[in-house]
Amino acid sequence: MTTTERPVAAPPQFHVLAKPTGAICNLDCSYCFFLSKEALYPGDRFRMSDEVMRAYIGQLLAAHTTLNVTIAWQGGEPTLMGLDFFKRAVAVAEELKRPGQRLEHTIQTNGTLLDDEWGAFFAEHGFIVGISIDGPRQLHDIYRVDKRGGPTFDKVIDGLEVLDRHGVDVNVLCAVNRMNADHPLIVYRFFRDFLGLSFIQFIPIVERENDTGFQEGDTVTDRSVTPEQWGRFLVAVFEEWITNDVGDVFVMTFDTALAKWLDIKGGLCVFAETCGDAIALEHNGDVYACDHYVEPKYLLGNITDTTLVELIAKPEQRAFGDAKRDTLPRYCLECPVRFACNGECPKNRFTLTPDGEPGLNYLCEGYRKFFTHVDPAMRKMAELVRSGRNAEDVMEILGAERSARYAGVGRNDPCPCGSGRKFKQCHVHVV
Ligand code: SF4
Ligand code: SF4
């Protein structure tokens, strides 16, 4: 298919998460929602053939009207395909890219199978590698375990060392769960100070309690982060970041929030007004509405019969995307931070609003707290950016404001922040 044959409903740019091993992984993380997806393909070997890989890359490149195209691999654990598969994939992409197209290769991995050959390959082709790690050893090893239930922390650190040796760009993906959520600063500082990483994404674990692994039911497992914990976690990390790290450390939730205050498109789909432009490609060419909706009723078709761009333009996929905006409960429609939150991901909308309307996001309380808390700082940063200054200047401005606010307060005085605690037990560290 050429770009001139694009269905009119197709978005100019879209994202495909390709899962070459399907849900298969060498680990057995307790909260992983992919593992139950094995049941969708009974008896399958879960390996993407070169034919499907070539169809995927060719269709992706043909479908994009933009010059930059991201080729993204995820799992399960994609490195189980072996390095040669990815060497062939990069060669296919080079062969099929159109003049002027710029490729960005990304891969999300648990990092445990990486060696120097992988490191050299990623470096040579400019891969951005996402590594899943949930914090320091004692927090990471609670849920991120191998098939025998054993710890994986050391293997992940070995993988990170490989990537560091080869100068590969690394993003950290941290799943915030019931256990690590109470330690926001330990987790954040571990990434920043111990691992020296600058690109961090926090994702909340909201795992529904059911036997299907689908988005059904309205209770969550006890591994899931609570809404209150999630709000506290984000606020605590934000305070550390806005005080010390703006411009040096990039936290996707904060970057996307700033984009909202600037009224531009942010990076995270969960805060977009609509969705539907991020589809999941299974190992056999099946395409689903989203990586979180790999379920029979969200199957769009197979790329060996129908091209990616035709699948993403299907009316049911467009309706899936628009439903995110069109099904918001009144509580969200009237919410002062809706422009930033947009009701977050539909997969988490299974609770009732205070007046009993269904469809409220389980994490609402946390998001309200977070987006309300960051409003003053976000306004300042947006103002700086609009006037041509750097967002990081906000640290100096806020620092001066804080010094003025807390000047002359005695250690045993009530903290001016209104917490009711003594200054020495509260904001003494900010002056
Ligand atoms: S369903 Fe959720 S994760 Fe999927 S595209 Fe929509 S917002 Fe993003
Ligand atoms: S904070 Fe809560 S009420 Fe506001 S948009 Fe988000 S989910 Fe809806």
Description:
By secondary structure, this protein is of the alpha/beta class. The chain is 37% helix and 13% strand. Helix 7 links the parallel strand 6 and strand 7. The longest helix has 23 residues, at 364-386. The protein is globular and about 70 Å long. The protein binds iron/sulfur cluster (2 copies). One iron/sulfur cluster is lined by residues 269-270, 275, 278, 290, 292, 324, 345-347. One iron/sulfur cluster is lined by residues 331-332, 335, 337-338, 341, 343-344, 361, 364, 367-368.
How would you concisely characterize the structure shown here?
The chain has 431 residues and is of the alpha/beta class. The chain has helices at residues 50-63, 83-96, 116-124, 137-143, 153-165, 184-194, 227-244, 252-261, 308-312, 315-326, 330-333, 338-341, 364-386, 393-406, and strands at residues 15-18, 68-73, 102-109, 128-132, 169-176, 199-204, 250-251, 278-281, 286-288, 299-302, 351-352, 358-360.
Derived from helix and strand composition plus strand pairing, the structural class reads alpha/beta
Number of strands: 12
Order of strands across the widest beta sheet? 7-6-5-4-3-2-1-8-9-10
How big is the Rg?
Answer: 22 Å
> Which cofactors or ions or other ligands sit in this model?
iron/sulfur cluster
Largest sheet: 10 strands, mixed
Overall pLDDT? 93
Unreliable segments of 5+ consecutive residues: none
Quaternary form:
single chain
Helix content bin = 25-40%
- Outline: globular
